[in-house]
Amino acid sequence: MYKIIKKTEKTGGSEIVKGKLLYVQDKSLKLDNEVIYQGNISWFKTQNDLVFLVDNFKTGILINLNNKLKKEYPNLNSLSLFINDNEVIYSHNSEDYLTQYKAKFNLKTNKKEWNIKSYFTNPFSVNNELYGNNKEFIYKIDLEKGNPLWQFSFSPLGTYTTPQGKKKPYEVQKFIGVWQKELLVLLSNFRFLALHIKTGKCSKDLSVKDYFGGVDGNYLSNSGIHIDQKNSRMIWLSGTTLFHIDLSNFQLKTIKNYWHVPQKEKWRFMSSTLRGNYLYFTGDKGLEYVVATRIGVMNIETGEILWQQQLQKTGGLPNAPQVTEDKLYVHTVNGQLYIFEKEEHDSTDLQSVH
Fold this sequence. Notes:
This protein is mostly beta strands. The chain has strands spanning about 1-10, 10-15, 20-25, 30, 35-40, 40-45, 50-55, 60-65, 70-75, 80, 85-95, 100-105, 110-115, 120-125, 130-135, 135-140, 150-155, 160, 165-170, 170-180, 180-185, 190-195, 200-205, 225-230, 235-240, 240-245, 250-255, 265-275, 280-285, 295-300, 305-310, 320-325, 325-330, 335-340.
């Protein structure tokens, strides 16, 4: 299905932008083979045609990929996320470092639009709306003033029991996304909630019992959760199992389990990317290693693995594969970037479901 066409050394983080790979190599930020920025880079984020990076001098730099124009923001080195092309959320401390603040900043006007004591962490933005949480509440946040529009309390949910027998309150593990008018959230102990985006009321609640936990090693994981908007469902490649969750009623369906099989056929999936009718994943087969050493392609309807390949001496594959129409990219812990190209005779449909 795919063949290796290139292996690049000394690489860092990457994202797909406009059908091309944006990645760090040594002291450069590249879009495919074009150098976009030269210098030390701590991290970068993208928003449509914009790249925001922070260099080793803690200076924020905004780059427009269309015209390559650069603009510096010396005090904007803790950017949390983009809301849209012009507005971002960032964190900063008071002068005495005793109080943390959240602020909204307009990149176009170069002005701070609001600045408040931080009552939420993990800001999450979708459809030009802002959400966040702390240990007690989930919030929807007013973009104009920074105040809560609504809050959802964890208290009525009670507690859950850890494998060690301790009782703990629920916390947010991940904001998954929005489906129709519902915010989808994963809590501790694999509990999914759907909250109405206008009111914060809980409309659906799915507590996935950890029936895979135990001494046999079969388990669930918080990674690999994807919204299939077209088919109103979540696709969840969790640990050893492929699930579908119907978003209309939160019904869970097991599609394929890769644990209750002979050892050489066992799979532990570490990360995945959804594109079209396929999951592009990293994982370990046959309990060979504790880290991912293989990449593969899975049919989301059946769980069938259509193609897989092991990479040697990588230190592990820490991130989900990234996919374009004809290429597949995967990073290794050792700083290598493998580039695969789809073979010409392969007719697999790679069109996005989104």
